[in-house]
Amino acid sequence: MSYNLLKENIKNNIQISTEDLDTICNHFNPTVIKKKDFLLTQGSIYKYEGFVLEGCFRIFTIDKKGNENTLYFATKDWWLMDIDSFMNQVPSSLNIQALEDSKVLLIDRTDKLKLYESVPAVEKLFRVMSQKALVAWQRRLIRNHTHTAKERYHYFANTYPNIVSKITDKQIASYLGITHEFLSKIKKQS
Predict the structure, then answer these.
(1) pLDDT, tens digit, for every residue of 60-92?
(2) Cyclic nucleotide-binding domain: from which residue to which, for each copy (predicted)?
């Protein structure tokens, strides 16, 4: 597997030397995850952070009633994380499941901590990425409180057409916080 996509992602976030970029990439291990397999299950400790090279993942929780609540999807050039479980080594509240055969680059906690010590640019990289993720979460939270379900659906479909084509309506409804039946009504009206 090639590390070119990871290198481009890193260079889009920070300025970094070729040597440091190679050092970072050498700590990531290529892995294939089959469709429907889990990279993380609720209640276990997340041992890796991942970068998606190919495929699509769903990051979700299952509540006490058995309802699935999708937080986000990750496709090519996206990161797979449960920061709390990974950094604090506590049981996760999340599930990470491949929605299709996928290729990822994984880094374990020990290697990431070594990188923080040996490559100062790693601190900046993950700070910048954390800030971008926080902005995205904030914008989504605002949309969820100020937009109708129909507006949220259209925003999602227009912003992430490559994801919409890979997932089911039930998964979209779970992400939007509405029922599958209500999503069907929205789509019929469009």
Answers:
(1) 999 999 999 999 999 999 999 999 999 999 999
(2) 33-117
Cβ-contact 32, 13 below 8 angstroms = no
Residue 116 pLDDT: 94
Nearest Cα residue to 174 out of 76, 99, 82: 99
User: Half-sphere exposure of 78 toward its Cβ, with a 13 Å CA cutoff?
Assistant: 19
3-state DSSP of 26-89: CCCEEEEECCCCEEECCCCCCCEEEEEEECEEEEEEECCCCCEEEEEEEECCCEECCHHHHHHC
Any domain includes 177: no
- Is 9 within the bounds of a domain? yes
55 in a domain, yes or no?
Answer: yes
| Structural domain of 89 | 4-115
106-126 tens-digit pLDDT: 999 999 999 999 999 999 999
Residue 182 lies inside a defined structural domain of this protein: no
User: In Å, what is the CA distance from 37 to each residue of 57, 119, 135, 149, 173?
Assistant: 10, 33, 30, 30, 21
Count of domains in the chain? 1
CATH number of the domain residue 11 falls in: 2.60.120.10
